[in-house]
Amino acid sequence: MTDRRISPAPENQEDSAPILYPDLKALREAKGLSLRDVFERTRISAVNLEAIEKGQFHLLPTPVYARPFIRSYALVIGAESEILLDAYERHLQSLNDRIRQEQEAGGTRRKTNGRYKRAIWLLSAAATAAIIVIFVLVRYNQPGPEIVPGQPAAPVQQAPDVKPAETGPPIAQPLPEASPGQEKTVTAVIPKVAQPREVIQARAPATPADNIPVKSVQPEIPKQATEKNYRLFMEAREPVWLRIREDRNQSEQMILKAGETLERFAAESFTVDIGNAGGIDIMFQGKPVGSIGKRGQVVHLRFP
Prior knowledge:
About 35% of the residues lie in helices and about 15% in strands. By secondary structure, it is an alpha+beta fold. It is elongated.
């Protein structure tokens, strides 16, 4: 068996010491097996098989599924599973150490940020109080109008009372006496009666445009360029690991516990990898898919 010195996980090389890791690809090819042959025997996806060969354990699913994958692969190609599992456990330990360090650093940052926030809040409150005090002092210290002692106040001018004109009968003025030989002329003065004025509001003639009914135009709502017409619904009867991908989006890994459900929508297709085919029920477009495999079997599905 050919051995090569690599780290258990490429992304954690600086945190873990290198260990002897067998050249699994050379061992597999020496037995005349391809990844397709190993897949046919183990039903483990080519992605996971390649990750085991290269020691890229961060690409594997959760440990509850990754450990059986490693044992099955080692059994098919004749490798020692203890060496592979030891490398995988070192990878998990390095991940736990890194997570603990990040949590400790995050707690320190949160304490520091809390102090900064309290200091900023106190400074803001003090500045606001200072502004209010300055405004009140300026407002109430403004001088009022100056009053000179002994100076009389300016008289207030009042509008003169205007009495309405009396509308009694006109007084006849005495007429001059006519000279002898002239006739007396008497002029009767008749008061004029003011006629009431009618206020008539002129109304502009209606134009043809005023008689046309106005229709409200509703703005058109643009339709979505792509509608997600496909619906996939899954319900787990047992703990199930799965990887799902909608259309051309990035795939997502998860574990469904017994009784948990998952619903997804897509415009083109779904690609699903399931680690426990006998422990899940699937409905596509509202119709049951039926049995997809046995308990503990790994299957790869595509809808539609």
